[in-house]
Amino acid sequence: MPELPEVEATRRSFADAIAGARILSVSLGKPLRWPLGCAPQDLVGRRVLQVRRRGKYLLLELSQGLLLLHLGMSGSLRFAPQAPGLPAAGAHEHFDLVTSQGTLRLHDPRRFGAVVAVSGEDDPRARKLLDGLGMEPLDPASFTWARFAAGLQARRAPIKTVLLAGKLVVGVGNIYASEVLFLSRIHPATPACDISTVKARRLFTAIGQVMAQAVELGGTTLRDFSNALGVNGHFQHTAQVYGRAGQACHACSQPIQLLRQGQRSSYYCPRCQKTP
DNA sequence: CATGTTACCTGGTCGC
DNA sequence: TGCGACCAGGTAACAT
Q1: Residues of A from 44 to 73 whose C-beta is within 7 A of strand C: which are they?
Q2: pLDDT (tens digit, 9 = 90+) per residue, A122-172?
Q3: Which residues of A are the active-site residues?
Q4: Within a 13 Å sphere around the CA of A199, how many CA atoms are in the beta-carbon half?
């Protein structure tokens, strides 16, 4: 479910409301992808200072240590301001952070998500997850044309794979990868190093613009994504190719093609997106 | 080292 | 209505 825009839309939806809150209790459901790494009671009494994001991870900065939160494939958060606010945890709700300002709850049917408590960003467990992440596409100081162009030059894997890997740029998942490649008119199977300078430049621009626009629209709600306040995203109405196999390209009316790369599907227009 | 494949887990959808 | 096959927004660990 959640690519960078969904994670960022989620962050924005509860960050201010939870800032300064004291942790009153923590409860866990079924195991997530990784163990929390400490006893839930150990978190009680700490304060949530702020909520940041790195790639698809949310970083809850505590008065002591850090909580790393990943939504995996099917995760979503809900923040209920007042005291009772939320009903008892359901079958797919595996983490509750009860604070003096409301409860933050993780809903994640497939449990590919995780909540990990670490001492800080230098903690080995944090470094294992965060080191090696690519540039932040919403941060101009991080996401530069020079670094992007050099990164493409250095890889011969298909551009779709390079984008999904997140080592060059973070946050571009399966939906947005198809979208940005369509906007820059690049075939998803093109080896990254073979992309012309003109198209690479268009891709660089498209990534920045699409990510920013998708955040503004609250992300993409295909099935059940909503932000921490329960509000759905709207980017899906703007999508040009994702999920549109067989339907007419909005630019040239050629049918959109589905391509399998690894176990992931890419959608592209065979006329607009020729190889190099 | 770079790249490709598998595994994790549940639920929805589709064809028979 | 039931059942199996396949698909789904991610990514670490492994194999090549």
Answers
A1: 55-56, 70, 72-73
A2: 999 999 999 999 999 999 999 999 999 999 999 999 999 999 999 999 999
A3: 2-3, 56, 264
A4: 24
- Class of the domain covering A4-130: alpha beta
Q: How far is the CA of A214 from the C1' of B6 (A)?
A: 31
Closest CA to A195 of A205, A206, A181, A208: A181
CATH of domain A145-268: 1.10.8.50
Residue A160 · residue A247 · CB < 8 Å: no
A225 touches strand C (CB under 7 A): yes
Give the domain ranges of chain A.
4-130, 145-268
pTM of the model: 0.97
Q: Facing residues of A255 across strands?
A: A248
| A179 SS3 class | helix
Cα A276 to Cα A271: distance, rounded to the nearest angstrom: 13
Element (H, E) at A130: helix A124-130
Residue A144 Cα to chain centre, angstroms: 20
How is residue A70 written in tokens?
């990943």
